[in-house]
Amino acid sequence: MNYPDYNSCILEMQGINKSFPGVTALDNVWLKLYRGEIQALIGENGAGKSTLMNILAGIFRYDKGHIILKGKPVEIKNEFHAQQLGIAMVHQELNNFPDMTVAENIFAGREPSNWGILSRYKMNDLVQKILNDFHLDIDPKRLMRKLSISEMQLVEIAKAASCNADILIMDEPTSAISMRDAEFLFKILNSLKERGVSVIYISHKMDEVFRISDSITILRDGKLISTSRASETNYDELIKKMVGREPKELFPLRSVVPGVTVLNINHLSRGKAFKDISLYLRKGEVLGLAGLVGSGRTEIVESIFGFPPAEQGIIEVMGKQVEITSPRKAIGNGIALVPEDRKLSGLHLLASVLFNITLPTLQAFARKSGIIKQRKEKSSAVQISQQLNVRTNNLKQAVENLSGGNQQKIVIAKWLLAQPRILLLDEPTRGIDIGAKSEIYQLMNKLTEKGISILMVSSEMNELMGMCDRIIALRSGQISKEFNHSEFDQEKILAAIMP
Ligand SMILES: Nc1ncnc2c1ncn2[C@@H]1O[C@H](COP(=O)(O)OP(=O)(O)OP(=O)(O)O)[C@@H](O)[C@H]1O
Ligand SMILES: [Mg+2]
Question: Of all protein residues, whose CA lies closest to atom 3 belonging to ligand 1?
Fold first, then answer.
């Protein structure tokens, strides 16, 4: 059998409607999935992708519509029921149990029936087999929170794929994993497909959408725009349908000529994370750090922010040596960090959008300039959330209820508003739709025009090459090569970061 089998429809979602207080998340959405098909589900942040899939996975109830599974109408009652029906989902936000082991996480909710002291051994054994199947070099007995984000994500994927599901839903699986791990995931997907498993794949990365999917479905503002065969559409057409207008140039032209050195780092080292890092950053410059997960790129920016501080080396800001022993010291020196894991360190989920956006401005920067002008704060918060097209009906709304990408925008927005002297961005556009990406790039440019300097970590090579004045390549915690703008070359940079 060659998959997809277009004679065998495994799932139909018919006329699905779903509202939350104040928002229509889905408005009459239809979706058809065939056996062995990989279907990409794309659309801007807040378009309704996760909501539609959460309905299929039994997490949300829908207001109207029908779901037909293998030819029979079904009412999916809850997550467990969905699993029994052969539907597994890897969620957008990692929702694992950090204090349980990898094996316990993989088996959570479906422990072997004779679960007990004895079967723990059996469980670890089983999980070792699953991990081996996926060629994952992770110890089943490790605590989940000891893993990197990329590893956690792979564990979740292995978990879902090991359920023997007929339908596997992946909500932005590669947003947190490295290029190498993504390749790995595509292999897993292809082998699942060969077994006749159908996959619904949510992603903002158009290159991978074209690489792996058979068909592509687009949602916009909760409405179905189209479903097409991947071979019969193209990048520009998709973008136009997704955003509802002609796409802007993704990377704005940079016209800033970098000025004096504002940040100078000499021989910075920290444990096994990174060693002997020396670099400088000039006024108005965008400097990129390229490297694989584990290359030390995140740890370097974290140490520049004092969290945790480096163990050796010298940091100079504006020509003066400074002791950055904590984030407070970093902020005091005009340094801000937009962290990689925004759920853990970037957001107060229960607080409002307004509170989150203006928090650093209030706390750290207004103190120096004196009085806080509340009305001005609010209007700039409104302005920046409009600029980034944050989909919220009200700035008082709790951040928790925003779509994944819109939460990311809030973290970025708050630091863009704070206008520090030096901005450290770790994967600034992860999970962000293409329209908002270009807005963030424009904002970065505007900040540099005002003399702000940016040090950016990114896994997306085109983003680094499109936005940076220089790129530093890292390999195993050390600088392997530096590239000036005129020397940018994807293959050479990749060669410099590969082990
Ligand atoms: N639990 C909730 N309560 C209230 N509103 C919600 C809730 N979950 C989602 N929404 C709203 O429903 C809309 C669709 O959100 P959804 O998470 O499905 O978007 P998405 O397409 O997955 O976007 P992203 O690419 O950002 O993940 C958004 O306006 C969002 O704010
Ligand atoms: Mg989502």
Answer: 401
Class of domain 5-243: alpha beta
CA 410 to centroid of ligand 1, rounded, Å: 14
**Burial class of residue 68 (count of CB atoms within 10 Å of its CB; 0-12, 13-18, 19+):** middle
Which tokens belong to 44? 């801007």
pLDDT tens for 360-388 read 665 544 445 555 556 666 787 788 888 77
Residue 32 — φ and ψ, nearest 5°?
Answer: -125, 135
For residue 150, how far is its CA from the centre of ligand 2 (angstroms)? 18
Using left for φ > 0, alpha for ψ between -120 and 50, and beta otherwise, residue 458 falls in beta
Dist. CA 123–CA 128, nearest whole Å: 8
Residues 141, 145, 147, 153: is their CA dihedral positive or negative?
A: positive
Query: Do 5-243 and 261-497 agree at the fold level?
Result: yes
Query: Ramachandran region of residue 470, left (φ > 0), alpha (ψ -120 to 50) or beta?
Result: beta
CA of 50 to the centre of ligand 2 (A): 4
CA 32 to chain centre: 27
Bond before 420 cis per omega within 30 degrees: no
pLDDT tens-place string over residues 194-222: 989 999 999 988 889 999 999 999 999 99
Ligand nearest the Cα atom of residue 353? 1
Pairwise CA distance, residues 291 & 493, whole Å: 9
Q: Which ligand is nearest to the CA of 25?
A: 1
Fold of 261-497: Rossmann fold (3.40.50)
What number is the average pLDDT over the span 267-282?
A: 96
Residues whose CB is less than 8 angstroms from the CB of residue 81 and which lie 6 or more positions away in sequence, other chains included:
58
**Domain boundaries in the chain?**
5-243, 261-497
* 242 CA to centre of ligand 1 in angstroms: 16
State pTM to two decimals. 0.79
Pocket of ligand 1 (CB under 6 A): 20, 23, 25, 43, 45-51, 92, 391, 401-406, 433
For residue 48, the one-letter residue type is G
Q: Is the pLDDT of residue 107 over 90?
A: no
Counting Cβ atoms within 10 Å, is residue 197 exposed (0-12), middle (13-18) or buried (19+)?
Answer: buried
